[in-house]
Amino acid sequence: xxxxxxxxxxxxxxxxxxxxxxxxxxxxxxxxxxxxxxxxxxxxxxxxxxxxxxxxxxxxxxxxxxxxxxxxxxxxxxxxxxxxxxxxxxxxxxxxxxxxxxxxxxxxxxxxxxxxxxxxxxxxxxxxxxxxxxxxxxxxxxxxxxxxxxxxxxxxxxxxxxxxxxxxxxxxxxxxxxxxxxxxxxxxxxxxxxxxxxxxxxxxxxxxxxxxxxxxxxxxxxxxxxxxxxxxxxxxxxxxxxxxxxxxxxxxxxxxxxxxxxxxxxxxxxxxxxxxxxxxxxxxxxxxxxxx
Length: 292
Fold this sequence. Notes:
eleven-stranded antiparallel beta sheet
């Protein structure tokens, strides 16, 4: 067996000298971690909750930064929307304050809002409309927790209102949040090729009905992100972009982060543990809780 260690290939015999570059390349491929090679290795945080830090790298032409991804089984976890005014508060909370108030295992931003903190689009909580005016152009709708009589429906899903426009007229889900459709079921990006870059939070649904919460570790253009997710190994069926920029936020409880392999995401951990960015107050959020 020929080894390409720190000192390179053996000097003797001479016929191996020409093979050194090839063997070094093979060694690099063998030792490259799955996260950077393009195939993510998931860490189990809890039954029904998995996490990975995936750097698309050359797979997405170096246009997309590392992505921190939660894969959630809706059969084991429930989703709940919140808005500060519905909670009787005078002002929005930071994501850390929201997590402390609700005790959610995971918390992420719930869509776009105006300067006065009113929600842009549809927002539903426990079967009540908190924002009942659908945005005419933002056709992504995250829905969760079917009404009692709709037990056969998926417990959470991403809806494309372009193909299911009538769904909101008699919505059979208790929780909902509207935002921008990013990638539809045909694999078509539903955003403009503008080149504008910002931090992003994405809610997706994979081919098996699991919900994916995706947080970028740096700024990215939505078009490039949509194409990358389509071509990537996550098995995404469709996805929507929640609010980006300073209000793009994801927080995971510390006790869950402790289940990630040592060294797996150390350079990115601050993005999801609440310590790595300036967290602005968020008027609306979505919490993720283990089902009893």
